[in-house]
Design a protein that fits this description.
single chain; alpha/beta; Rossmann fold; 11-stranded mixed beta sheet; 17% helix
Length: 364
């Protein structure tokens, strides 16, 4: 197969050369209100940029599901099964100051936070970790170190392991790994909302990920080179933010209608390392107050500045907001698995999987 390369340059996506491929929750009782994207961006928001991957879809994309940019969190595995009402982020005119991250290194070795004296025991089921209710599937630690995957929900949603394909969860746990889906956040007061005014996730929620990572690496034989994150909508913005602001330990991320919420925000915590990234969005069909194609591009802009030149793929499936099909989520896991922290040159750069959808393009 051929892959398309997209160059991100000064806030513009430039097509360089041409290359498509669950479980559902219950709707809230409130009516669904689909909010169209604004014609004129509010002050402080960049105007819509040329779209990454435009014109690069070789096959006819899958038929759109019932959501076309509507303000609803959609089941990440089965986009035809909407789950939670979700008010979407209102574009701010600027970003809040960012809290300091753990000390970064720059020698190609992930920097894992110091664990506290008392750590949670990671067992499958529901438990509270760092103050957040968390659904968890945990494999039995063995001689081979396992992977750790965070899955973040959208605004008004809840942590659901079902947002990760069952085949992916089974593979991770069979190797002693852990999947976590937290609910809620550590917000309130003057804490810093990553997507104002939704209040879905805050910058301080990285205290939760720091705690999980530190304890899981020390106590559950988790590989410090295999720490990953995904999520939908506000959860996708959290995954992108975590990838940048904890780049000293995040190996790869797969935001689904995510990225970062405004251009030029969310600096890398370790300028020597950016996570490999597999961004998924609905292109021109993925507009809910903001364009989630643009939020993906804004993530690419920040991440490409890392000295390790992280490998990034952008997948424009054209199925609306959080509409990535299950097969694309499975491909996202294959991507993350192939890109541990210390991967060096990407194995997908020269030899991508034969079944990689034609609408997934390389970001230069």
């Amino acid at each position: 197969m051929k892959m398309t390369a997209v160059m991100v340059w000064s806030g513009v996506s430039l097509l360089l050369l041409s290359c498509s491929s669950g479980a559902s929750g219950a709707l809230d009782d409130q009516p669904v209100t689909a909010v169209p994207a604004p014609q004129n961006p509010p002050p402080g928001m960049a105007a819509a940029m040329p779209q990454a991957g435009t014109g690069a879809i070789a096959p006819t994309p899958p038929a759109p599901g019932p959501m076309q940019g509507g303000a609803m969190e959609v089941d990440a595995v089965n986009p035809g099964a909407p789950s939670q009402m979700e008010p979407e982020p209102v574009p701010p005119t600027g970003g809040p100051p960012e809290p300091s991250a753990p000390q970064a290194g720059g020698d190609g070795v992930p920097r894992i936070p110091e664990p506290p004296a008392d750590c949670p025991s990671f067992m499958s089921g529901s438990m509270t970790i760092g103050g957040l209710p968390t659904e968890i599937e945990a494999g039995t630690p063995g001689p081979t170190m396992g992977a750790l995957l965070f899955s973040f929900h959208g605004t008004g949603g809840r942590g659901r392991l079902a947002s990760v394909p069952a085949s992916v969860r089974a593979e991770i746990t069979s190797e002693g790994g852990i999947i976590l889906a937290p609910t809620g956040n550590m917000g309130g007061g003057d804490r810093m909302d990553i997507a104002p005014p939704t209040g879905a996730w805050f910058l301080e929620d990285m205290e939760y990920t720091d705690l999980v990572v530190a304890c899981a690496v020390r106590d559950h034989n988790i590989d410090p080179n295999r720490i990953y994150a995904t999520g939908c909508s506000a959860g996708g913005l959290m995954a992108g933010t975590l990838g940048l602001m904890r780049s000293e330990y995040m190996a790869a991320v797969a935001p689904n209608s995510g990225g970062i919420n405004w251009q030029g925000s969310r600096r890398l915590s370790d300028a020597s390392h950016g996570p490999a990234a597999f961004t998924m969005h609905g292109g021109t069909t993925d507009n809910v107050i903001v364009s989630f194609q643009d939020t993906s591009v804004w993530f690419h802009e920040q991440n490409r500045s890392a000295m390790n030149s992280p490998f990034m793929l952008d997948c424009n499936h054209m199925i609306g907001h959080c509409g990535a099909p299950s097969q694309l989520h499975e491909m996202a896991w294959e991507f993350m698995k192939a890109h541990p922290y210390d991967v060096g040159a990407s194995p997908w750069a020269s030899s991508p999987p034969a079944d990689l959808p034609d609408y997934c393009v390389v970001v230069e």
